[in-house]
Amino acid sequence: QVQLVESGGGLVQPGGSLRLSCAASGRIFVISSMGWYRQAPGKQRELVARITSGGSTNYADSVKGRFTISRENAKNTVYLQMNSLRPEDTAVYYCNADVRTGWGSVPVAYWGQGTQVTVSS
């Protein structure tokens, strides 16, 4: 019904940068918010950043000042610019979108397939 397609993950050295992209497609009436989460081995999934359709953002304390989330509403696309990357940022990063599929529909959370980010010398 709704698909989230991610790109931009990879291997980078400490201090480097990456930009993740996520585009939502399918039966979409409106997306109220989109976000990025990450999960490292042996740890629970954690919020990295979220952004609403109105542009309001929130970040995990560990990434404030280093990561920036943005979106293009007309394209249903969200980005995560990651600067000054550290080894502890290594994780699988997942895109999330809260989607309404029609008038009066309940919002449903959709998830991307995940993309690996590895920060290592």
Strand content: over 45%
Structural class: mainly beta
Span between N and C termini?
A: 40 Å
Shape field: elongated
User: What is the number of helical segments per DSSP (H or I, 4+ residues)?
Assistant: 0
State the total count of DSSP E strands.
11
Which value, in Å, is the CA radius of gyration? Answer: 14 Å
Low confidence ranges = none
Main β-sheet description: 7 strands, mixed
The arrangement of helices and strands along the chain is EEEEEEEEEEE
Helix content: under 10%
**Mean pLDDT value:** 95
Question: What's the short version?
Answer:
By secondary structure, the protein is mainly β.
How would the blueprint of this fold be written?
Elements: E1 2-7, E2 10-12, E3 18-26, E4 30-39, E5 46-52, E6 57-59, E7 67-72, E8 77-82, E9 91-100, E10 108-111, E11 115-119
Parallel strand pairs: 2-11
Antiparallel strand pairs: 1-3, 3-8, 4-5, 4-9, 5-6, 7-8, 9-10, 9-11
What labels would you give this structure?
121 residues, seven-stranded mixed β-sheet, mainly beta, 11 strands, elongated
Describe the structure.
The chain is an all-beta fold and 121 residues long. The protein has strands at 2-7, 10-12, 18-26, 30-39, 46-52, 57-59, 67-72, 77-82, 91-100, 108-111, 115-119. The strands form two sheets. Strands 2, 4, 5, 6, 9, 10 and 11 form a seven-stranded mixed beta sheet that branches. Strands 1-3-8-7 form a four-stranded antiparallel beta sheet, with no helix packed on it. The N and C termini lie far apart (40 Å).
